[in-house]
Amino acid sequence: MNIQKLDKKYILPTYARADVEFVRGENATLFDVNEKKYIDFTSGIGVVSVGHANERVSKALCEQVTKLTHTSNLYYIAPQALAAQKVVEASGYDMQCFFANSGAEANEGAIKIVRKHGERDGKIKRYKIITLNHSFHGRTITTVKATGQEAMHNYFGPFPDGFVYAEGLDEIESLLDNHTAAVMIELIQGEGGVEPQNREKVQKLAELLKKREIPLIVDEVQTGAYRVGEFTASQAYGIEPEIITLAKGVGGGVPVGIVMTTLKNVLQAGDHGSTFGGNFLSSRAVCEVVDILNEKKTSGDLEITSLLFNKALQNFYNKYKDIFTQKVGIGMMCGLRVKDADTLSQIINVARDNGVMVLKAGRNTLRFLPPLTITKEEIDEGFKALNTTMSQL
Ligand SMILES: Cc1ncc(COP(=O)(O)O)c(C=O)c1O
């Protein structure tokens, strides 16, 4: 069966797929239909946080499917409550969770919470949500509009009202008014180009918003689940947001989105919901992934892996300073700025041919989001293939 032909015939052409078809994986290693091996420095865009085919996650999921996968949110779901306990405890915040199925959907939930919270006194309608230019918050109509990239607003309007874009953290204060429902930011812009925000500025903004009683939403769809060393980047930045959204890495490959919030009494029964959100299957995955990553954090393995990866990346960067202009990122969300966009595309394509998968972010950033369980051998093999790549450009 020719999958490429089938894909072209039956799948809408919304993705520019690379010419490769993976069939199995082991930790940070992927194998294609011809058994060719690739080192995965992408983890499926920050999703497979505990590696491909993780034994513990696979076992938990297999066990769960033979018992129960779905009953709906009309009834209690033990793995959902346990998963919520695990993510809240890992975060250290006094929050409650709502379970959805993706990052965009988690952000939609967050937006609903702050819009309802914005009507709390019945007099002023606080509906505006300030986001940042170059942000990325998802692909639904509302989250596309929340995304501060004008090119993404082509074609799909009219959009929900009330999204206001700030050029950077410094501009936010001047945009706050009586109608501001919330500020929503990524602490490290991912799709926008691996752009970490300044810690002091973030802390100042969080303090200002607390004073003005305006909730802060931190979109941690990409930064959450220990990607930057702590369970959330918010902890790493030393702030206490009212809402954190998670997805990607917290499910380890099973679709899940989570809204965590201190605003526990805003949404009431009937205000929000999801058929699939937090079902037995995805919640079991979250429980297992969080357990595994908690253990890696406590044992010090997570930090060792991050140090090893960053050391290898630094060496690689030092060797090719004629091509890369800066090493950026925090923990295992890192990137190298490339001198021009053509060279960036070339590196990604040649690297794939050489058996290592890397990503693009923004216009000029080579992005690395390896599984948090990547081994030293896999790191070494991946950078060996990247060195070969550079010699072929
Ligand atoms: C910061 C951020 N928010 C939201 C999303 C959207 O997540 P999803 O594709 O799961 O809807 C992404 C995806 O890349 C993201 O990086």
Question: Can you describe what's shown?
Answer:
By secondary structure, this protein is α/β, with parallel strands linked by helices. It folds into two domains: 3-53 and 300-392, Aspartate Aminotransferase, domain 1 (Alpha-Beta Complex); 68-298, Aspartate Aminotransferase, domain 2 (3-Layer(aba) Sandwich). The protein has helices at 3-10, 43-46, 55-65, 78-91, 103-117, 141-146, 169-175, 199-212, 233-237, 280-299, 301-319, 341-353, 376-392, and strands at residues 22-26, 29-32, 37-40, 96-100, 128-132, 163-166, 180-185, 188-189, 195-196, 216-219, 243-246, 257-261, 324-330, 333-338, 356-357, 359-361, 365-368. A seven-stranded mixed beta sheet has the order 4-12-11-10-7-5-6, with helices on both faces. The longest helix is centred in the last third of the chain and has 20 residues, at 280-299. The site of pyridoxal-5'-phosphate has 14 residues, from helix 5.
Query: Can you write the helix and strand succession as a string?
Result: HEEEHHHEHEHEHEEEHEHEEHHEEHEEEH
Please name the fourth-level CATH homologous superfamily of the largest domain.
Answer: Type I PLP-dependent aspartate aminotransferase-like (Major domain)
Domains (count): 2
Instruction: Find the count of extended strands (DSSP E, 2+ residues).
Output: 17
**Considering DSSP H and I runs of 4 or more, what fraction of the residues is helical?**
25-40%
What can be said about the biggest beta sheet? 7 strands, mixed
Distance between the termini: 34 Å
